[in-house]
Design a protein that fits this description.
Elements lengths: L1 E5 L4 H9 L5 E5 L9 H11 L3 E4 L13 H22 L2 E7 L22 H16 L2 E7 L2 E2 L6 H11 L2 E5 L3 E2 L2 E2 H17 L5 E4 L6 E2 H9 L4 E5 L19 H7 L6 H13 L1
Parallel strand pairs: 1-2, 1-3, 3-4, 4-5, 5-10, 6-9, 7-12
Antiparallel strand pairs: 8-11
Helix pairs in contact: 1-6, 2-3, 3-4, 5-7
């Protein structure tokens, strides 16, 4: 089985390169090999690779910047996946795609299930929802995983930002009224091969799933867990830290469907954080 990984240098893509070889031959396609904004580039790369499974780990993820670059966000997060889905349908390949908790408005007081109404508050969320819908309309076999607050030991993310700030400051002020589940890229990479294998053996499986760490916290709670007792972390409201893009106050995802269909239950967010901090220390 051939598995084409798009976006191999990102947080999720780089970790998938470590776990997917257990189930097939992995081919990595960076932007030079496959440009999601160019139809001919996608067609050429897929013709060369002839994959059985296409894993799209590439995305436009600059949430605040997307407010002024919505056309670019749509090109990468909607149009690119739409073209991948067309090719997947034509080739009979399985398309695996990652989406976000930011497709919701955060007004629900309990965790979101897959069938809940979407209502993104920002351009990034709109672009990711449009990508989901394009894949679903295509008719291709697919797995769409909505996840949340993704971080890793590489790249640009909240964990690395907090560690950097903690080296220079005695006090940090962090938003404490947005709730979610910090999910490490390692958690995702460990779970995805199992889901792919199950779908390839059972055609009744597939579609849209929530995949995030167990439990929930706030950005302030996450920051405190990251820096420990070395730095004082003070809670503030979202209004005290205005950003170009609005964020949902609650973006906790319910993962029951994932566990029911695949027997997959990601670890707690605290466990995932301990693993990443351990890797950084090593």
């Amino acid at each position: 089985m051939k598995i084409l990984v798009i976006g191999p240098s990102g947080q999720v893509g780089s970790t998938l390169l470590e776990t997917l070889p257990a189930i097939g031959e992995v081919i990595a396609a960076g932007r030079r090999d496959l440009d999601l904004c160019k139809k001919e580039s996608i067609a050429k790369a897929l013709a060369a690779a002839r994959p059985d499974v296409i894993v799209n780990a590439a995305a436009y993820t600059a949430v605040d910047q997307a407010e002024t670059e919505e056309a670019l966000a749509m090109a990468v997060n909607r149009d690119g996946p739409a073209l991948l889905a067309e090719e997947a349908a034509r080739r009979g390949a399985l398309l695996v795609h990652f989406s976000t908790d930011y497709v919701f408005d955060g007004e629900k007081p309990s965790p979101y299930v897959e069938s809940d109404a979407t209502n993104p508050l920002n351009a990034y969320g709109r672009s990711k929802l449009a990508g989901e819908q394009a894949i679903q309309r295509s008719g291709c076999r697919h797995l769409i995983f909505r996840t949340s607050w993704v971080y890793s030991h590489i790249g640009r993310n909240f964990l690395l930002t907090m560690r950097r700030l903690a080296r220079d400051k005695r006090e940090l002020r962090v938003v404490d009224d947005q709730h979610g589940a910090p999910t490490s890229s390692r958690m995702l990479a460990d779970a995805v091969p199992r889901a792919i294998t199950a779908v390839l053996h059972d055609s009744s499986l597939g579609g849209l799933y929530h995949m995030s760490a167990q439990g929930s916290t706030t950005w302030c709670g996450f920051a405190r867990a990251i820096v420990g007792d070395h730095v004082k972390v003070l809670p503030i409201s979202s209004s005290e830290y205005p950003t170009p893009a609005r964020r949902p106050r609650n973006s906790v995802l319910d993962n029951s469907k994932l566990e029911q269909d695949f027997g997959i239950r990601l670890p707690s967010w605290q466990s995932g954080l301990n693993d990443v901090l351990g890797a950084l220390a090593a």
